[in-house]
Design goal:
- The complex is a heterotrimer of chains A (about 280), B (about 260) and C (about 600).
- Chain A has about 280 residues and is mainly alpha-helical.
- Chain A has a two-stranded antiparallel sheet with strand order 1-2.
- Chain A starts with a helix and ends in an 11-residue tail after the last helix.
- In chain A, about 20% of the residues are buried.
- Chain B is an all-alpha fold.
- Chain B has two domains: about 120 residues, Cytochrome Bc1 Complex, Chain D, domain 2 (Orthogonal Bundle), CATH 1.10.760.10; about 90 residues, Cytochrome c-like domain (Cytochrome Bc1 Complex, Chain D, domain 2, Orthogonal Bundle).
- Chain B has twelve helices and no strands.
- The longest helix of chain B has 23 residues.
- The radius of gyration of chain B is 27 Å and the shape is flat.
- Chain C is mostly helical and about 600 residues long.
- In chain C, about 75% of the residues lie in helices and about 0% in strands.
- Chain C has a two-stranded antiparallel sheet. In chain C, strands 3-4 form a two-stranded antiparallel sheet.
- The chains are: A mainly alpha (about 280), B mainly alpha (about 260), C mainly alpha (about 600).
- Chains B and C meet through helix 1, helix 6 and helix 12 of B and helix 5, helix 9, helix 12, helix 13 and helix 20 of C.
Chain lengths: ~280, ~260, ~600
């Protein structure tokens, strides 16, 4: 609800009732018009978030019907309204106003046609899921890897055997620059030399909403299965990521994951933390 | 006369107005479900794809179930992550068995908090075939899990479904000649029609001795009434051995009984 | 005149017999051996056979509804006339009955057309239905025969029998007519919720097939809806005659007829939602997915159209009452309430027509944060809509109450207290209904569904209690003037037409959803629709077909009105006396025999 606008509308109605009618008596037709505008303003601007236009049209159609019924429910009021309309159409003093209305009506129609037709193209309403939920387990070259529990087997080396860990990271660096960097770029910003040919563009690993908030097993799934392994909710704009299980070994994938985190300085999300 | 014309014009105007109202709402034409050709050598990925199509189309699952949505009208459980949790629902039931049971016999287990009401999808009006149900299982497993089901997976409920094709208008009334049925199910090896007893009693003039209901009974439960001089159990064994019990359809049975009653 | 009547009766009987013969013919294929060459469907050139059958069936249904409804209230009106001795009621009942004979013939003709259409265009389905229902055709034909006998005895015997005998004829007419509808309903409800057959469609129990899940709900729903529809068409006839009336006396009579017809229609409309509710419950009980297809899928938008139609019905009914006040002296006092009543009606109408899921562009959806609007979402659910309907009913009742007391001033000593009590009842009930509506948001679905009953009963209680108080309150009231029948603007008569058209359209729409919810099935779950028309069309297309059906129906009704008005016309010879010369010359040239034919 947009209280302010609703208050303004009520205040305006009250002001017309209290002040304007003193020196300008309004007949029912005029009141109808005022009410129509007031209700329209309330529906179109008084509610937050705004109502869809289709709903406003429906509501205003009902309100219009009701107002017409009200006007014609009283024979005298209807007659006075008809007299006013007739007067407006035939009397000389309204000539300019009548002309203005006659010009404005087709213009308004044209305007509505124009706005209808000049709407920019709209994307489909259903949006693509960027981080679809992973399967419980995947099969990697005949071996089943449970994604919900799998950890990077070389992560523990970080504390126990730093030399071995550095070797794995170094191996990851080699793999990254042999395979990944063409798209994900030398800074891991998703701006490699091929990146501009793709929609969606390759992931930017420096972005804190990518690998920083994912578990390593999730990365393993994405690297191993690539775009072909994406579930349907991640479509229709499937990424161009290949399924690397056909080119890399399990160890190589875990190594490159180590390198990604090492290079960007992020820590992987721990297993078991809520997604 | 003038009024009649006005009124007629008014009728057209009001009808046109209501037509306009009906054009104002979203326009969607619902096509009847198409039968998707399912071959025995589908890959898992193909099964998932077909299963997804069936779930959205012929299976009409999405009328009641949602797929990974929360907040929408949840009449039946959401299936968004069913592949991951199917195995945990019923103690001792694997995910394939659980999913199969939920489709063949949906009310055997109802998730707490939901009301039983899902129709068995192997029966009309949904009437999925056994193969189609396998593809649906593959698709459901793929939601958060990895499909393990193949076209060769055998389920205990298979062979009971009545496909829509059987129920189509063409199938109403028997099609196969009852006399052919009589010989193809090897009834004639035991039963003569000329009054001489064989391994079983002669069926000559059967319609004058037994009502249709009795004939049904003697076929479906042969030992309920035994003609004097014949051993019980023989016909039951034979019916199983000839495959009659597995193969005969309700309408074949009906035409067979009609034929026998006319002897 | 008698000669003419007899020929008309014979003609109508013949038509009835043709229809019956068609039904008998239907049985034939069931007895004969099945022919393998029979196609499942036959097509018509240029037009889809489904649309043709759709229109014919709907027209048949509309006429049947009218023919079944009119005897019901004609009998009641005649009875009132008999008890009170007020000749006007008797005359009104006769005026309604006049419409019957032609409508009856039309109904039978359309029924025959429907039967032939089914045999020719849908042979496989027809064969199956005949197989299941063959034993119901004989009583149907017999009842049809009795219907004709009672109907014509009732119509032509008006004033010719003792009142009791005539009332008895009317009662029999109603009983037979209702029985006919019950049988036909069995065939049709079987196609929605088949019972009594096994999974291959073989009949196991005819009674179960007849008494399927929705047979009784549909019977009751149709009985009530027929009343509403018949009343609306009767009112339209009154309006038509009013507009063409020349004398004040005629105007007064037909104004009263229109008012009575409208009154019947609205009274029957009020319990209709509850009958519909029962029908819905039974559909859910039969098959939940069938129910959800009906209420939740594509058809959910159909119920928005329905809301628009019913909202219009309430609006027009109130509008007519307000205009009616102009014929009562003293009604000016109540005019100022109209705008508040209208405000409530508009508000309820808006709530009722609010869809649950919205049509929105992407930008609008983003602004709403999804496909559901936070405020509209609240209005789009059952709790809000039930509340809106109950308040609509209550508002309409208030309009009627104001109309009733327009020319009266209570003279009883407790007038002030009585008014306060009435107002108190209204206030309490409105608060209670709104409270239950709001409370519905905070409880689970099962409890929420249960809340609709206290809402309904409190509204019914308010209406009954206030009416009873009102009866005593205005006993011996001082009258400001008589009701000046006939003093009403022509707009009011168009409001009656609007009501009749809206009723007809509503009937067409609900007929469509009754048939359409089977989707690609002829007999749900048993016989599949394998024709090219198996798809469920868009609502826009359905709306077009319904509109065309309604227009055709009113063309037919125009013929009925015209033919019914013929008997009160002056004879041709008399009417044309003293007109232009060539007319006179032509008259002289007529032979006597031609003349008598023309006159009829």
């Amino acid at each position: 609800m947009n209280i302010l606008i609703l208050l303004i509308i009520v205040a305006a109605l009250a002001a017309i009732q209290l002040f304007v009618t003193r020196w300008l008596p309004l007949n029912r037709l005029a009141w109808m018009a005022i009410w129509w505008v007031a209700v329209y303003a309330a529906f179109a601007y008084g509610i937050n978030p705004p109502l869809p236009s289709s709903i406003v049209v429906l509501f205003m159609a009902i309100v219009t019907l009701a107002l017409v019924a009200y006007l014609s429910a009283d024979s005298e009021e209807l007659a006075s309204a008809m007299r006013a309309i007739t007067a407006f159409m035939v009397e000389r003093r309204f000539r300019v106003a009548l002309l203005a209305v006659l010009v404005a009506l087709p213009l308004l129609a044209a305007l509505s046609v124009y706005t209808d037709l000049s709407k920019p193209p709209q994307p489909p309403t259903s949006s693509r899921t960027i981080h679809p939920p992973p399967p419980v387990s995947i099969s990697f070259k005949g071996k089943t890897i449970p994604l919900s529990t799998a950890n990077n087997p070389y992560r523990e080396l970080q504390h126990s055997d730093e030399a071995a860990f550095a070797q794995h990271v170094e191996n990851g660096r080699r793999i990254y620059f042999e395979n990944c960097f063409y798209c994900h770029g030398d800074n891991m910003q998703g701006a490699g030399m091929f990146a501009h040919g793709y929609d969606p563009i390759p992931a930017n690993f420096n972005d804190p909403t990518t690998i920083a908030m994912l578990q390593e097993s999730y990365l393993f799934w994405r690297i191993a299965k690539g775009a072909p392994g994406l579930p349907s909710e991640a479509t229709p704009w499937s990424s161009a990521m290949p399924a690397w299980e056909n080119f890399l070994t399990e160890e190589e994938i875990w190594d490159v994951i180590l390198f990604l985190y090492e290079f960007t300085g992020y820590e992987p999300r721990a297993q078991g933390m809520p997604h | 006369m003038k009024h009649a014309l006005y009124i007629f014009g008014f009728t057209i105007l009001v009808s046109a107005f209501y037509w306009y109202v009906s054009l104002w709402v979203p326009q969607k034409r619902t096509e009847p479900p198409e039968d998707i050709a399912i071959s025995a050598d589908l890959s898992t990925a193909e099964m998932v794809a077909i299963g997804e199509e069936i779930v959205a189309g012929k299976g009409t699952c999405l009328t009641c179930h949602t797929m990974g949505e929360s907040g929408a009208a949840l009449r039946f459980p959401d299936l968004g992550n069913i592949g991951a949790i199917a195995a945990t629902r019923v103690e001792g039931q694997g995910d394939v068995t659980y999913l199969a049971e939920s489709m063949y016999d949906p009310n055997a287990y109802v998730l707490p908090g939901f009301v039983a009401g899902m129709p068995a999808v192997a029966r009309p009006p949904v009437a999925l075939t056994d193969d189609e149900i396998l593809t649906v299982i593959a698709y459901l497993q793929s939601l958060g899990g990895t499909p393990t089901v193949t076209m060769a997976t055998e389920l205990e409920w298979q062979g009971q479904s009545i496909g829509a094709a059987d129920a189509a208008p063409v199938a109403v009334g028997g099609n196969r000649d009852a006399e052919t049925l009589f010989t193809s199910y090897l009834c004639n090896t035991c039963h003569n029609l000329d009054g001489t007893p064989g391994a079983g009693p002669s069926l000559e003039g059967l319609g004058t001795r037994l009502t249709k209901a009795e004939i049904y009974e003697s076929i479906l439960d042969p030992d309920a009434t035994i003609t004097e001089g014949f051993a019980p159990g023989v016909m039951g064994t034979m019916l199983t051995a000839t495959g009659f019990r597995e193969q005969v359809s309700a309408q074949e049975l009906q035409s067979l009984v009609d034929y026998l009653a006319g002897l | 005149m008698t000669c003419f009547c007899r020929t008309k009766a014979v003609r109508a009987l013949l038509v009835g017999l043709v229809a019956s013969a068609a039904v008998v013919l239907l049985c034939e294929p069931a007895l004969a051996a099945p022919q393998e060459a029979d196609p499942d469907y036959r097509a018509l050139p240029f037009i889809s056979s489904r649309v043709v059958m759709w229109i014919i069936a709907e027209l048949h249904l509309m006429f049947a509804a009218f023919v079944l409804a009119v005897p019901m209230f004609a009998l009641v009106l005649e009875f009132i006339g008999y008890k009170t001795g007020d000749k006007r009621f008797d005359q009104l009942a006769y005026d309604f009955t006049k419409l019957l004979s032609v409508s009856f013939s039309f109904t039978a003709t359309l029924g025959a057309l429907l039967t032939f259409g089914l045999i020719v265009l849908y042979p496989a389905l027809t064969k199956y239905l005949v197989k299941v229902f063959s034993w119901t055709f004989l009583p149907y034909v017999l009842l049809f025969f009795f219907e004709a006998v009672f109907l014509y005895a009732y119509y032509y015997g008006w004033g010719k029998f003792s009142p009791r005998v005539h009332l008895f004829l009317g009662l029999m007419l109603n009983i037979v007519g209702t029985a006919i509808m019950f049988i036909a309903n069995a065939w049709l409800t079987f196609m929605n919720t088949p019972s009594g057959v096994d999974e291959l469609g073989n009949l196991t129990s005819l009674w179960d097939a007849i008494n399927n899940y929705i047979w009784m709900p549909i019977n009751i729903h149709r009985l009530i809806a027929n009343m509403a529809f018949g009343g609306a068409i009767g009112a339209a006839y009154g309006a038509y005659k009013f507009l063409g009336a020349r004398t004040m006396e005629e105007k007064a009579h037909y104004d009263w007829m229109g008012y009575t017809g409208n009154f019947i229609a609205i009274c029957a409309l009020l319990p209709l939602p509850f009958a519909g509710y029962w029908l819905g419950v039974e559909i859910y009980a039969y098959d939940q997915s069938l129910g959800i297809t009906l209420m939740g899928g594509t058809f959910s938008w159909l119920f928005i159209i329905q809301a628009v139609l019913i909202g219009n019905l309430f609006l027009a009914a109130n509008y007519y009452l307000w205009l009616s006040m102009s014929r009562i002296a003293g009604a000016e006092r109540y005019r100022r309430f109209i705008k508040y009543l209208l405000g409530v009606i508009t508000l309820c109408f808006i709530v009722w027509a609010t869809p649950h899921s919205l049509v929105a562009t992407v930008e609008e959806a983003r602004a709403m944060g999804g496909s559901h609007h936070p405020i509209l979402n609240v209005l789009g659910v059952m709790s809000a809509k039930n509340t809106a309907v109950n308040l609509l009913i209550l508002t309409t009742y208030v309009s009627f109450l104001l109309y009733r007391r327009a020319n009266k001033d209570a003279t009883v000593s407790w007038a002030r207290t009585g008014n306060l009590v009435q107002f108190g009842i209204f206030a309490v009930v409105v608060i209670f209904v709104v409270f239950l509506g709001v409370y519905g948001y905070f409880v689970d679905a099962q409890t929420r569904i249960g809340l609709s009953q206290p809402q309904v009963f409190s509204v019914l209680f308010a209406m009954v209690a206030v009416t009873v108080i009102d009866l005593f309150l205005f006993r011996g009231a001082r009258k400001r003037g008589e009701i000046d029948w006939g003093r009403i603007p022509a707009r009011a008569q168009y409001a009656l037409f609007f009501l009749a058209i809206t009723f007809a359209w509503l009937m067409g729409l609900m007929g469509y959803v009754r048939a359409g919810m089977r989707q690609h099935w002829h007999v749900y779950g048993v016989i599949r629709d394998t024709s090219v028309d198996a798809f469920t069309p868009t609502l826009g297309f359905a709306g077009l077909v319904v509109s065309i059906t309604v227009i055709i129906f009113f063309l037919f009704i125009a013929v009925v009105f015209f033919l019914s008005g013929l008997s009160s016309r002056k004879d041709w010879a008399e009417r044309t006396k003293g007109t232009r010369r060539w007319f006179r010359r032509a008259k002289q040239e007529q032979s006597d025999s031609t003349l008598s034919v023309e006159a009829s």
